[in-house]
Amino acid sequence: MNSKHSFCRSVFFVLLAMLSTNKKERLQKMKEIDISRVIIEEYSRRLSEHLENDVVIVGAGPAGLAAGYYLSKSGVKTTLVEKKLSIGGGIWGGAAGYNVVTFEDKDILDEIGVTTKKEGDLYTADAIEFATALAYKAKKAGVEIFNLTEAEDIVLKEETVKGVVVNNASVRMVGLHVDPFCISSKYLIDATGHSAELVSMLKKRKPELFPKELQEYFMNVETSEAGVVEKTGEVYPGLYVAGMSVCDVFGLPRMGPIFGGMLKSGKKVAELIKNKLKI
Prior knowledge:
The protein has helices at residues 2-49, 62-72, 107-112, 127-141, 169-174, 197-205, 221-230, 244-250, 260-276; strands at residues 52-58, 78-82, 100-103, 117-119, 122-126, 144-147, 149-157, 160-168, 181-190, 233-236, 239-241. It is α/β, with parallel strands linked by helices. It is globular and about 90 Å long.
């Protein structure tokens, strides 16, 4: 009887172990699908919720991130698209890979919590801290950021810019013919930097709007830092320029690794649009 009881107990535990192993295998097999499912569903939800916006910003450099931060913290529904994998534009490399950046004042840096050091008439900051702090503040303020998303055209209705046509940046990179989709906006900001990509698209088919070549001028820090803020604004109904795109459109000098003008340009374009939205 004891031998039979012992045998039954052994069989029971073997079956229990087999069931446990099968359960673990099922869980392991399903975990990959669960991971895939939640990523696809969450991304699809975010994208679907941001197909219609108050503002769309193209380019996640310092001006684009600053604009997104100031718009979103005021309750403006804002989406930012960036064709690269990383955001931050030209911040990361500082000057020639020396990852230190400079500013003439530090008001905005203090606001976003960046550590600065006074060096003569300038303030310096660690480029990595600056890039990550600005991105973090913009995201926490509420701007929705879609990286690896490239603008390939603008939506134009009744001579007013109404949004942007986008595609997966990888698709564009390898030159595949894959149709894009559209993200609408009440106002669109070209913060694409030196290339002023959105204005270039407009100029290609409406050359009379910008008769001069889109190109920034020789290096001149003082002129450029002031001019980039002064000229930030609407260049066509529904289309604004900020940051280095301003220099390209208006032929202003470049300024190198000094970023105060970029931040102020982003803040200014946000204020201009908020006034239009009556916020």
